[in-house]
């Protein structure tokens, strides 16, 4: 079987796709594998803020079209970038790789968020991160930022195009770790202080729903815990009914008695932000529903 794997062209996307390719090649060496780089809307428009681009599929639409046309057989994404509903005819394989889900700070002169001086400039492309940062440090300034990991680190060191000097940026730990850039991290932000995006750090492997042979191959790596955690986080994303303009966070974990889901949702302007923590013996829809009810009740108060 000839398996073409579609991917964006960033270093992180290529690292993630190569990881999946090597895993498949190791277990199923009889097949031929090839990476196919596909440019997406989000890659081509590097100037506007992410939420101004509108669609949740700005990093996925072109890749999904290639899947449906048969140009590629598999696609590897960061699960946090995926819309809550897939195009008809496409499915996810079971998730089986999850890196550190936390957000991190990379700082120029300080060692932690607490050490940043009042009035410090911190950049992030995420409203979820912005509003949680301001809850911790209302005295700092938040600036938007775009670009891949290398570009964002360069902007931190050299300043933004308009001349603004930055003191720090916020990124996902997973991407830095997958690229071997852990030494750049100044501080890991705790889950309690900053709830990650749903399924942050988890790889999404997408394929056509009728490709049963390939699905069976990919699902041979399936991990029950990662599958359940992803189900809870993505389930909250879908049920809360938010879009890319709204701050949404969800983090599920295993506890001594089962599973815990910590979730966040708020208004676009950040004037209202609600958080909740729910638990259950098993990862169930009931847990998701309870989290959604708790959040909506708080926002209505």
Summarize the model shown:
With 301 residues, the chain is an alpha/beta fold. The protein is 32% helix and 23% strand.
Overall structural domain count? 3
Percent of sequence in beta strands: 15-25%
Q: State the strand order across the main sheet.
A: 2-1-3-10-4
Q: How would you spell out the order of helices and strands? A: EHEHHEEEEHEHEHEEHHEEEH
Q: Number of helical runs? A: 9
List low-confidence stretches: none
Radius of gyration: 19 Å
- Total strands: the figure is 13
- Here the CATH topology of the largest domain equals D-Maltodextrin-Binding Protein, domain 2
How many angstroms does the end-to-end distance come to?
Answer: 57 Å
Q: Main beta sheet: strand number and arrangement? A: 5 strands, mixed
Would you give an account of this structure?
With 301 residues, this protein is an alpha/beta fold. The chain has three domains: 2-98 and 202-222, Periplasmic binding protein-like II (D-Maltodextrin-Binding Protein, domain 2, 3-Layer(aba) Sandwich); 103-188, D-Maltodextrin-Binding Protein, domain 2, CATH 3.40.190.10; 236-300, Double Stranded RNA Binding Domain. The chain contains nine helices and 13 strands. The protein has helices at 11-27, 41-44, 61-69, 127-136, 149-158, 173-178, 212-219, 224-240, 285-300, and strands at 2-7, 32-37, 74-78, 90-92, 103-107, 121-123, 141-143, 168-172, 187-188, 203-208, 248-255, 258-266, 273-280. It starts with a strand and ends with a helix.
